Amino acid sequence: MDMQIDILTLFPESVDAMLNVSILGRAQERGYIAIRTHQIRAYTTNKQMQVDDYPYGGGRGAVMQADPLFRCWEHVVNTYSPGRTIFMSPCGRTFTQSVARELKAQYDHLILVCGHYEGIDQRFIDECVDEELSMGDFVVTGGEIPAMAVTDAICRMVPGVLPEEECFTEESHWAGLLEYPQYSRPDEWHGRRVPDVLLSGHHKNVAKWRKKESYKRTMLRRPDLWAQFDEKQLKTKSEKKVLAEAKAEAEAIRAAEVEKAEKAENAAESPVE
Q1: What is the end-to-end Cα distance of the chain in Å, rounded?
Q2: 6 vs 73, 158, 200, 227, CA distance in Å?
């Protein structure tokens, strides 16, 4: 077993419905990964199976209590292994592809804690959580969707889950670039044709086109990512030529967009006769 992930949640059925099917479902059947969900309510000590209460200090909503969380977490630790405990929280570091690679490389057991309501008791975080992860600068109603995203991103990199390593190493964010455009049959749809190079059967030219499109897409859509790209890693004349072509084409696209915007602005300002 290359990766075990235990998810502490109030909604195990929802998580199971997503993570036990398709690619991840087959990977579990074949023994490459194990994904287990744990119902936090099962670890309460009251008849109502209540897991939340009013926050000290007042305020709206309710806070998940520390004890049910701790009992659930303790069961996982004692049954499987301590693992690395991660609380899905908007206060954590932002989850990225590089963080997914880091967690996959350094740990073979993760425990993901899903909060709900107004959050969870800080004392559980202080005692049991190793780190907090955020999906970005937004808030969702619970930690289940973030936990599923983290699980999917990490597990798909485990050997055997996908047919080949290239299935994820050529995708967006793996090397700090966005992925090139994809096309499938038919070769013409609604008057739009597949680029000729992809129909040529010339694998070297296809590879160059894909790299160039990856550069262009990153330059135009994610200048923040492109600013971090190290051009010095390109050693050959061929690699540098592809980059130069991408820069020229990206600049032409930007110029065309500026011209189009200026024409639209001028048209809007022109008096109607």
Answers
A1: 74
A2: 9, 16, 47, 37
Cα gap 190→184, rounded to integer Å: 14
**CATH number for 57:** 3.40.1280.10
Cα separation of 92 and 130, whole Å? Answer: 11
Contact 252, 220 (CB under 8 A): no
CATH number of the domain that 245 lies in?
1.10.1270.20
- pLDDT tens profile 203-213: 999 999 999 99
Total domain count, the chain: 2
In a domain, 91, yes or no: yes
pLDDT one-digit tens code per residue, 128-172: 999 999 999 999 999 999 999 999 999 999 999 998 766 555 655
* 3-state helix, strand and coil shares in percent for the chain, rounded to the nearest 5: 50, 20, 35
Distances (CA, A) of 52 to 122, 140, 262: 13, 18, 56
Residue 130 included in any domain: yes
Q: What pLDDT, in 10s, does the model give residues 7-54?
A: 999 999 999 999 999 999 999 999 999 999 999 999 999 989 999 999
Q: Which pTM value belongs to this model?
A: 0.85
Distance of alpha carbon 132 from the chain centroid: 15
Q: How far apart are CA 241 and CA 218, in angstroms?
A: 17
- pLDDT tens digits, one per residue of 119-131: 999 999 999 999 9
Query: Structural domain of residue 225, as residue ranges?
Result: 188-269
CA distance 44 to 72: 9
Instruction: Specify whether 90 is located in the same domain as 214.
Output: no
